[in-house]
Every structure is written in C-alpha cells, then in structure tokens.
Amino acid sequence: MRESSIDWKSVREDFPILDQQVHGQPLIYFDNAATTQKPRAVLEALRSYYEHDNANVHRGLHELSSRATEAYEAARARVAQYIGAASPDEIVFTRGTTEGINLVAQAWGGKFLRESDVILLTEMEHHSNLVPWQLLAERVGARLRFIPVRDDGTLALEQIDQLLTPEVKLFAFTHISNSLGTINPAAELCAKARAVGAVTLLDAAQSAGHMPVNVQELGCDFLAFSGHKMCGPTGSGALFGRAEMLDAIPPWHGGGEMIVSVTLEKSSFKKAPHRFEAGTPNIAGAIGLAAAIDYIEGLGRAAIFEHDSRLTSYTLKRFAELPGMRVLGPIGARGAIVGFVMESPHPHDLTTFADQRGLALRGGHHCNQPLMRRFGLPGTTRASFYFYNTIEEVDRMIDILRDAARFFA
Ligand SMILES: Cc1ncc(COP(=O)(O)O)c(C=O)c1O
Prior knowledge:
alpha/beta; 4-stranded antiparallel β-sheet; 17 strands; binds pyridoxal-5'-phosphate
C-alpha cells in the first residue's frame, strides 16, 4: 500500500508527551484503543479557553458567557460536520461512548421498548454496549439476542436473517472491535435492520478517530463516540441521533440548562439536544474536541486509516516470526488493533515486562469478558496504534516480545 505524502515522524512533534523516557527507555505508546495522546493544538485550545473565555454557557448575559456559549455551540456544529449529521441539533455532548449508549438505553429504550421486544447485539461488544442493554432488558422485560463471532473474529453474518427478525426493535453493534480489530460492515447491517423496522445504534468508539465516519452513508439512527480516543480531552464525546429520534425521546437527566419553565410541581423541557444536557456541561471538553477534529481533519481520516493499516499489517507479518504467538481477529482489513496471546507469559506479566522497557501495551479482558470466554481465554495482550506510531516502534516491540518469550520460558 502506498503511504500518503504526510511526514508522520514530524507529526510526532505535535505530541509533547511522546518525547519522554519511561523506565530509562524511549516511550512507545501502543495503548491507543484505551485512550490517545493529545496534540499541542488541543492543549492550546483548552488553555486559551480557560485563560480568556471561561464562563458558564447559555446563562450569563455578559461577554465571557457569550464567548463560551458561542465556542461551545460552534464545537457542536464542528462535530455535526465531522460525522455528516444533517444539523448540529442532532449532536448531544456526552462524557463519551458509554454515556451516549446509556442515554439511548434509558431514555429511548425506556420509552419505546416493551416486554418480549428483542435487542440485538453481537458477541464482540464492549461492556459499554452490553451492560446498559442488560439493565434495560431487566427493567422492561425485553430479550437480548446476539450475533455470534466466528473463529476468525468476524461476525457470523450467515445467521443474520434468523437473528434480525421483526421482533428486533433495536440493533446496537460496534463499528470496530476493541479486542479483535474487526471492522464490521456497518452500512450493510444498518440497511438490513431498517428493512425489519429496527432502530440502529453504532458504537464508533474505535472508528471515529481512525477512518471516515459519515452517519448519512452509514444510515444509522444513533452513533456514539468518545473524544479522548481521537486526540480530544477525557470526559468529552458525542451522541448523534437522527432529529426525529431525538425529538421523540424524553429527558434522561433533570436539572438546570435543559428546561423551558419550572413550577414546584412540573417542568417543561427544551428541544433536543439541550434537553439531554442537564447541568453545566463539559464546555472545555467540547472546545477541545472541536480542536481535535480540526487536527485530525488536517491530516485526513483516509490518510490516518492508511497509516494505521500499514502499521497493523506490518505487525501481523512480524508476529508470524515469533514462536507460540496466537493473534486474534481477521487476517485482512482491520482497525489499528492487534490482540494476541503468547505461549509463556500471561498477558499481565507480559504487559509489566513491556512496561519495564518503555512499551505501553494493555493486558486483560479489555471490557470484553464474554468475547474472551468465546475464545477460551482469560485475556489477551493488545497493541493498538495511532498515526504518531512508527514502524521502528513496531520493530522494538518485536524485540521486546522475543526477549519476553525467552525470559518467561
Ligand atoms: C468499542 C468500545 N466501545 C465503548 C467504549 C467505551 O468508551 P468510553 O470509556 O470512552 O465511554 C470503548 C472503550 O474502550 C470501546 O473500545
């Protein structure tokens, strides 16, 4: 695959945190599926907001409050544009993917799901796209159904017609698996769901910062993502909901900001999206997220995907050299995530061994306990990349893993 003309090594200089030693070795940060690092542009946007414009939004009739409100609403418009939403009103700011999914489960699900309705999920869901539906199912008496995962880490889509039946009222699934790297055919699945009248929710936690994501092209009803997994601040994120979906949902949190009028007995509520943002929002987070989007779009999501893919396929090729290495997930196209197990070290021991050499990996179940059980594993070690990672870092990881295999043997 031909690399784009971006000088990826110089891109690293935008990330001050990468320029450090950990345990006496240059830091290699391969835990990007958990959270990504932040470029100077995002750090500067946060600093500038707090230094010049900090005030509460939609409240004070003073200059700073107007500036804060303007920047916050401009951030909403930026997010809408980034994912192809028809209007900023289709964007609810959240703390991240988890909160977005909980909003839909509690507010939409609480209103529209009934006993014996079916919620269709997949066996590869992150706990964030599983536990909220379990809670809802228990509350309303709905049933959960799952698309199994094949041995190669893809969904068993030959079963989709038996599983996606008219009783399915909601189909929620991940765009990219955080353990397997599998990229699910989201547009095709949303179209199939629409054909049986099911509402769709796409978990874009691992895709929103890594590849082009456009809600019109995907045809989903809801989409949730986290700002911190795409260069933005922690505690930032957004939920997209098609206008008619959000308009039909009651509030889920009550408080300031989301009301039109309040008496002691009763309140009336603002329209979407403000109805879903009770209390003082994460104003700086939204502004930082918009700065992250500007930064990512400056590189281009197609170029980021190409760079990610190059690192991932190089890693898979080099992993084949290591004895006793088992890699999870598809051989072909996948996200920038490689989960693996080695014969001797347990994932936790391996992660600690790597950390001592400056390499940040992740070991454990990755909030995917049912998926780990499906593969008969207590957990895996995961290397996950972003555009500031390099081939040389992958080479260094291979050396460390080879040393680990020797050490633990
Ligand atoms: C696929 C997937 N969904 C949801 C989440 C939850 O994201 P957050 O913790 O930012 O809410 C994650 C986080 O790792 C994830 O990988």
